[in-house]
Amino acid sequence: MAVDSAGASVAERVRAVVEAHSTDRGALLPILHGIQAEFGYIDPEVVPILAAELNMSRADVHGVITFYSDFRSEPAGTATVRLCRAEACQSVGADKLVADAEQVFGVKVGQTTPDGSVTLDQVFCLGNCALGPAAQINGKMYGRVDRSRLVEILANGVQQ
Ligand code: FES
């Protein structure tokens, strides 16, 4: 990942994201979101670059990345399935949906299938509480999701 197809190095792209947030106070979180938006994930090689740019220790940057489940350290699958596990969705079967999804995809929450087709994530409220269990797949919201609907959505193909 040292150089992309346009010839920009990782360090240059990371610095551009940092520069875009140069006036933010407490900018690490928005920068990390920016890095993930730029690359799709936060490669461990980015950590020392960020630490140097922000005058922080590598351990501190790494600690923030690992604390927040929104950040991933490796590329996501073709479809990112985020299942809500907050209270309203739990009351209508979210835990069963998560268990079903783990069985269907053969991975645990936070993991990507070996073929790279699906990343399974959990989230705590998608703002779709009245239509639980709620799911977000590649950014698109779905309500009243159960095992068969989840399989059907993915079988019909999801947009990147
Ligand atoms: S509790 Fe699931 S969308 Fe709000």
Automatic annotation (TrEMBL):
- How, per the record, is the cofactor bound? Binds 1 [2Fe-2S] cluster.
Gene3D superfamilies for the chain: Glutaredoxin, NADH-quinone oxidoreductase subunit E
* Key words of the record: 2Fe-2S, Iron, Iron-sulfur, Metal-binding, Ubiquinone
Q: Does the keyword Iron apply?
A: yes
Give me the residues that bind [2Fe-2S] cluster, please.
Answer: C84, C89, C125, C129
- Which cofactor names does the annotation list? [2Fe-2S] cluster
Question: Which ranges does the record mark as transmembrane?
Answer: none
Short name of one Pfam family for this protein?
Answer: 2Fe-2S_thioredx
- One GO MF term attached to the UniProt entry: 2 iron, 2 sulfur cluster binding
What the entry lists under InterPro entries is as follows: NADP_DH_HndA-like, NuoE-like, NuoE_dom, NuoE_N, Thioredoxin-like_sf
Write down the PANTHER family for this protein, in alphabetical order: BIFURCATING [FEFE] HYDROGENASE GAMMA SUBUNIT, NADH-QUINONE OXIDOREDUCTASE, E SUBUNIT
Q: Give the similarity note.
A: Belongs to the complex I 24 kDa subunit family.
Q: What is this protein called?
A: NADH:ubiquinone oxidoreductase 24 kD subunit
* Species of origin: Saccharomonospora marina XMU15
Q: What is the lineage of its organism?
A: Bacteria, Bacillati, Actinomycetota, Actinomycetes, Pseudonocardiales
